[in-house]
């Protein structure tokens, strides 16, 4: 198996915590659910997951190719990842969520919600940067195919993201009101996420493979 069970057990809760953190994708699904109903909200979540998996495939192919031709590529990517994770951690502390509002979207069909979800995710360069910063920490070239490992980690992220964003889209009415009113919880979640990113960056910096 390309990914050992211990690594997977460490990755799953981190992925779930990230999926639970409010962000543009979640707000897009919330907006679709509020404007067009539960089917559109769920379709938007599946679309976002589709886009994220496309990013995972592209990142996996690119990293696998680099590692095959340049042995030092993994170290370069690792330190870029450290810098990026520290940056988003600092940003989380400096810019806590002051309020959450659904994306401004027009009423649309489930297919259009899915298609727009794909585009929202694929055209977001931050998603590609995030995957390249987080996933390589858990990738071990000695375990086998780097591409297969990216697919597995990407699948774990997407399953959690689809469940969380799907629930937000389907139950958008009550969840939307909670997100809009419970600003203290939103800030706490933002700070917890910032600490988690600092921890991931530290582990990535000092881990030797």
Describe it.
It is a single chain. The protein has 9 helices and no strands. With 209 residues, the protein is mainly alpha-helical.
Number of helices: 9
| Helix content percent band | over 70%
Number of strands: 0
Uncertain segments: none
Outline: globular
Determine the strand fraction and express it as a percent band. under 5%
Q: How far from one another are the termini?
A: 18 Å
CA gyration radius, whole angstroms:
17 Å
Q: What is the H/E order?
A: HHHHHHHHH
Note the main sheet. none
Q: What is the total domain count?
A: 1
Rounded mean pLDDT is 75
Helix/sheet category: mainly alpha
Brief write-up:
By secondary structure, the protein is an all-alpha fold. It contains 9 helices and no strands. The chain has one domain (5-97, 108-204).
Task: Explain the layout of strands and helices.
Elements: H1 5-20, H2 24-36, H3 38-69, H4 73-94, H5 110-122, H6 125-134, H7 146-170, H8 172-181, H9 183-206
List keywords for this structure.
209 residues; 9 helices; mainly alpha; globular
